Amino acid sequence: xSEESPAQxxxxxxxxxxxxxxxxxxxxxxxxxxxxxxYIVSAFVFFIVGVGLAIAMxxxxxxxxxxxxxxxxxxQLFTMHGTTMVFLMAMPLLFGVSVYFVPLMIGARDMAFxxxxxxxxxxxxxxxxxxxxxxxxxxxxxxxxxSYAPLTEKAYxxxxxxxxxxLSLLVMxxxxxxxxxxxxxxxxxxxxxxxxxxxxxxxxxxxxxxxxLVILALPALNAALxxxxxxxxxxxxxxxxxxxxxxxxxxxxxxxxGHPEVYILILPAFGVISEVIPVFSRKMIYxxxxxxxxxxxxxxxxxxxxxxHMFATxxxxxxxxxxxxxxxxxxxxxxxxxxxxxxxMWGGSIRFTTxxxxxxxxxxxxxxxxxxxxxFAAIPIDWQLTDSYFVVAHIHYVLLGGTLFAMFAGIYYWxxxxxxxxxxxxxxxxxxxxxxxxxxxxxFGMHWLGAAGMPRRAYTFLDRPPLTTxxxxxxxxxxxxxxxxxxxxxxxxxxxxxxxxxxxxxWDAWTLEWTTTSPPPVENFEATPPARxxxxxxDFRKKEETxxx
Amino acid sequence: xxxxxxxxxxxxxxxxxxFFLLLILAYAFYHTSGELGTKAAHALNVIQxxxxxxxxxxxxxxxxxxxxxxxxxxxxxxxxxxAATVGLGLIFLVGQGIEYARLLRDQITISRNxxxxxxxxxxxxxxxxxxxxxxxxxxxxxxxxRKNGSEPSPVAMGSISLYWHFVDGVWVVIFSIxxxxxxx
Lengths: 549, 184
What we know:
The structure holds 2 protein chains of 2 kinds. Chain A is built from 16 helices and no strands. By secondary structure, chain A is mainly α. Chain A has one domain: Up-down Bundle (Cytochrome C Oxidase, Chain A), CATH 1.20.210.10.
């Protein structure tokens, strides 16, 4: 399928790249492509660990009064599951895809600061190892992924798990800020000739705005972390009410980071969807300007909604109303995006490849997650459902049904570019349907569980009619979901060995990364076509149909 | 287009300002919610710290001079102004050390009460930033003092200047809130 590439190289897989041979070429690498791959692979390793923790919890919750594990272990598992999925899996996966594809999509040789890029990765990697080391150092953290004070104070949690939690997040936070800075500078200073910001692919736009969220939200977490470390290590009193400190200060600081964080986890996924849907609908993206501008609105609003995580803490009515209003408002720019994607598909000649299937499922599942989010913005509903399984359902619809499905769309779309081999569409379809069934089976019933009064983070539950059945159903479907992940791994391993050779542009796509070979050479491009519109590669090949912006 | 290292530095400082903002907000929060203000007024030596603060503020001026002389190619003056900047920064850190030593002698520690907790965390992190800045300035000075005619690149000088002015500006805010607010 490859076409018109100047001087076709014989390279058709990562194993053919002589520059990538030997472990040292990876450890010492400052190549954004290798660092991107290392991010993605590490994220996947931790993803499998996180899935393992979740499955262990689902086994414990299969029947009432089960004793598969002790309550103490259960606390460690849900803490490590949340922390792993947010910090060790989702963020590095998004960073990996970003540092791999942003330079390629803007026609650059590498990131603006290649060594800072490597530093960002290694800070993440060793931070991640540090938090798992806690299992061997007296017990993993056990206060939930948001570690509410004063439970996290030394007086209530004396074992060192939480110190590892805070230190590890601090290290990874520093790495994230470094990568965020790097991405912004790269987008601003490294674009190829003719690629004005208004012609940059939407994935680049989303990553660009997302990086501002990263550099402005992570320091809020870092400040809170140094304060809790001071409390635990130096007997300071920031969050200890017994000495006049305020436990709510932690909640404010954590969610001032935490709510932008959920947008950090979703914006790059939006970017992936904005690349995949137009290519497989054979249409220009509908409403490029609105997609970019609504992202700015999300970035600003995401800093003004954090207290909706704290509706149950006795806030004044004025504060409640303001934050309920802003939380509902943020659904508007998000809704605009959904309509843009649907409008892009509307009337297109859609090719339902695996990537497109995942993108379509993303639209539906993310909308469900978004709607339950708007429901939470209504204060009485929040008061009724807060800390229940309804929240668990909501967060998984947004982050698993949303972010992860979008990232799977991205992986099926870009895997041929990264490795030179196509993933099997046949196994891909199996992977997709198992995942849709497993995911919805596991989490849809949790809305009902929450409404029936099942509290989240509870080690076990009473034998009452809806709870017993719903938990059992959820657990059974979670095995399907885990099996879907195994099918995916099988697909990756199989395709790396003997997948079909992808060629430069297997999907007939139009952004710059598809102009170079698959996998791209170390220097990325021999020559980049000048960007004259939103689809530079399309314009280059079909001059008579050039887009005019 | 702005030079890329300076842009990176500006973004880093943007990120740092959120970090400091939250530490300052924590101080201000406890200041208004308890008797932190009176404790601060009793414990701190405003006159002495004010004098040492002037050293830090004037170091921004000397660094600006160094930056200007580098652009004009006056190497001897670059050396002089950089040395002055490092000296003034050191004087500030010594002043902070004296203040800390006195507080600790008076049994005011990070674990004594909320004033100690917030004061030491906030000023400690600022002091750490000053120390990092001094290390960077000493590297610049080392480059300009070598015999082989090397000199710091204008980009390095510019980026580190941004950092130093930022640390200086943060101290203006911290000094106003921690030292002056207690007396109002």
